[in-house]
Design goal:
- The protein is an all-alpha fold.
- It is built from 26 helices and 6 strands.
- It has a two-stranded antiparallel sheet with strand order 1-2. A two-stranded antiparallel ribbon has the order 3-4. Strands 5-6 form a two-stranded antiparallel sheet.
Amino acid sequence: MQPVVLSTQSHRSWLLNTLLGMSLTLFLAACGGGGSETTTPPPPPPPDKSISQMQAARFLTQATFGADEASINQLAALGYDDWLQQQFTLPPSLHLPLVMEYPDDNTLDQTMRYEVWWRQAITANDQLRQRVAWALSQIFVISDKSALNQTPYGIANYYDILVANAFGNYRDLMQQVTLSPMMGVYLSMLGNEKPNIALNIRPDENYARELMQLFTIGLVKLNIDGSPQLDNNGQPTNTYDQDTIKGFAHVFTGWHFADNPSWYQVRINVFDPMKAFEDFHDTSEKRLLDGFIIPAGGSALSDLNSALDNVFNHPNVGPFVAHRLVQQLVTSNPSPAYVQRVATVFNNNGQGVRGDLKAVIKAILTDNEAISTNTLTDPTFGKLKEPLLRFTQLWRAFHATAESGKYWFGFSEYFTGQAPLSAPHVFNFYSPSYSPSGPIADAGLVAPEFEILNETFITHTLNWLAYSTYIGYQGIPLDPPDPDRILINIDQELILAANPVALVDRYNLLLLSGQMDTNMKAELVASIEAIPASEPLLRVLNSLFLTVASPQYSIQK
């Protein structure tokens, strides 16, 4: 029996309509408790923090690279708060030590870094940290599609800055990103010199511009709910102008590789923060955001600290970061109230601390808009899953492994348009404000991930999903043997093959967080029943492919 695959055009249209108007009913198991009366009533039991499996699966889709049965059951028993606290306390699973197991010789390339990224995404216990780091990597963008293409160690080290700071303070993260030699190379702050009229040298404005536009405050002044502040003519107000960019460009002068004996004696160090060379730093007065002035005579480090403080304390940062992270983790179109609640936590974590990412992440994931069943029927809520996340979810749900213990998927860009830290430019794989023409744009909504959804990648993604299911399961004969072949485990599904309804229910929980609509359930059950019960393997594989190829799997609600 051959699987039914939609044409790419109908698949795209279905995804658009599903994101805009998918109406689902989620039946949640009620939790309760009680006790019998005694002469001396016992103290009340602790509140039951448990949640349903469907709630747990939905939460894990937002907070991790994908759920499996064990993680669903664990979260269902712990509840949101205890699970988050457990994740917050896990040590970070760093990438650089694993990349450095590959020797720095003529064979070292970015595919080895990709392998480690996939390995950590699929197997690391600190799933929340890894998922947040991936979100941050799409804000603080660097890419191997640049002068960094020969530096897998350096890019892995940069990624570990995001991993290590995923639950830290945003101000600290800003500092470490700014002084990273990888960011220094990527946005040309490294080697940025003070002005010299005689030599026609002017400070490079690249990092100054992107720090403000993409990493912290954006182009227009925001209200705390993320809406633009309007002037008397009803027009948005700019956050900065060209003079502001120049001021920051002069701040970011005088930094080079940490191992350089001198400014002109370059010794590449892709790991350590850049070092200040005061003779090449501009010590003149600098005008920054909202009239703030750094007086003349400062050092490279003091000026940098003052400038980063100036940006960090700008009122835009809270709503800007809140909106970006909500889009990455939960929904493309958060309500202004949702953004405001998260931005308020960014501004003050309840203990007077600004920029506490741990508090921000908790606020995003436990907000009523993220976990309420009401949003399941809200046509403006949800997001298209990044195609890369469709693979991590499949592989985690079915414990994909290779005999070698490695996760070689160095060609993910061909199938998905994405590879780790390999965006085509500093604006990421897609714009957070992208709105595809049609019903989404007509409704005034955005759908960022649709910018990389086209006929080519739909076809490539579906082909790889077919490869990963029909001929990608553990136990399939491989000729010749391939210890690096990533294979899913379908042992549990084979047990359920004789029970089509139970098999579909399992796929529904693991892959769709219990949100599969009745029509899709009925069609999947019918497709299974059309295959003889004597062919359990085909029953399992065909229904699994149809599930992961469906628009409902592609949409996160």
